[in-house]
């Protein structure tokens, strides 16, 4: 049964790597993005091909041109072999910005992250990522204002996910 | 290893709270929605701010104006500390209704549920939810009829998920 | 605690059934699709009603008319009772093809897979699936070219998820 428990824990930690990446990108928390990769990790992205150390400033510049992003992931399947794992994660990424009728700022992409991860020093991280773009659809002209106020997001420590963190004493994850 | 197993079980039960909420909303099962919150739980929503006991009739009225909804969740990350947890869940909610060219009835929203959950009497539930709206896109005029019949949904016990339940003897969850 | 571990493992294996189905459909790997069902399994689909053995060639013909598909799943909730499970999985499926302004080739559907699964010979598989279509939206005219090169997908062993598999010695899953 220990093998089963180890497998399930590995799966959880591997999933968390991808979740940290997405949160980091969407909240502009580049340290969190970086934490998803091992040092020297390689990223193959639409428009970028190289090391994580160069990917970080490149993606940060791109994100800075946008008003916000949301990287929603779905299907996540890890094939684990010892300290290595082949991990596929499906997702759709919403991008927005002003003016809202500009399709180069307002669009949604379908993607798959194909990650080669390794466990080093007990921690799973990305060694090589192939970010496959499946489709890109304009959202220009689709924005609707439903005229009701409500909680809003921030790409800063002012976002609710950070503001509520103080309630955690010593987080387990 | 017991700690690991407890963590994984907590994560599963916390995820189920969010899943029950979504199913309840989409099937108009208000008891299921309510079961996701502890009594007196607070909900901050687009257009609503208050206790779950008041949220239920408010959201039920809004849902009644629509033909249907689908709250698809993705990224789900719980940070657990003892009997408390900070839980972020990404999602996209499709809304539809007649006439189908009305953008106030036919739209999709991107959201994040930022939940403070607690375990009380052994059960995890929402104590405070901040439902952050990220974007809202019109689906008016996008409907296509592909001309093929097939299974359909219901917001009642006639939905397939309820009809098949009789096959379960004594469900474990 | 053994019961808890068994439950969590069952949940993982049940989820993998759905993940294998989606990957098989999107990569045109019909053996993988078939592996999600027990022999004689029944599928109720938009435009199809019958056994998996007949569903496979039917769906393969339909997929062949498209340039690609992406079946992104989200909410996944299994209610397990012994060797049976009632499993609901939410998803959105993107379809595309040429010409890209044809709404019968370029559209996204919202669906729920309502599956009755059973464990036979230690393996979970679908015995009956009701694929409920919730909505269908045209993506015709929404395609944007963002003018940057990057990794692309294939519906063949050339896809990155297959190319990287050689790095796995003996995969655990």
What would you say this structure looks like, in words?
- The structure is a homotrimer of 173-residue chains.
- In chain A, strands 2-1-6-5-4-3 form a 6-stranded mixed sheet.
- The mean pLDDT of chain A is 95.
- Helices cover 28% and strands 40% of the residues of chain A.
- With 173 residues, chain A is an alpha+beta fold.
- Chain A is globular.
- At the A-B interface, α1, β3 and β4 of A face α1, β3, β4, β5 and β6 of B.
Question: Summary?
Answer:
With 173 residues, the first copy, chain A, is an alpha+beta fold. Chain A has helices at residues 2-27, 30-35, 52-64, 160-163, and strands at 37-45, 48-51, 68-81, 84-96, 107-120, 123-138.
Q: Helical amount among residues of chain A, as a percent range?
A: 25-40%
Largest sheet of chain A, order of strands side by side?
2-1-6-5-4-3
Tally of alpha and pi helices of chain A: 4
- Tell me the number of strands of chain A: 6
How would you characterize the largest beta sheet of chain A? 6 strands, mixed
Proportion of beta-strand residues of chain A = 35-45%
User: If you compute it from the alpha carbons, what radius of gyration of chain A comes out, rounded to the nearest whole angstrom?
Assistant: 17 Å
Biggest chain contact: A-B, 44 and 44 residues
**What's the N-to-C terminus distance of chain A?**
23 Å
Mean pLDDT of chain A: 95
**Structural class from helices and strands of chain A?**
alpha+beta
What is the molecular shape of chain A?
A: globular
Q: Enumerate the spans of chain A where pLDDT stays under 50 for 5 or more consecutive residues.
A: none
Element-by-element helix/strand order of chain A: HHEEHEEEEH
Please, what is the oligomeric state?
Answer: homotrimer
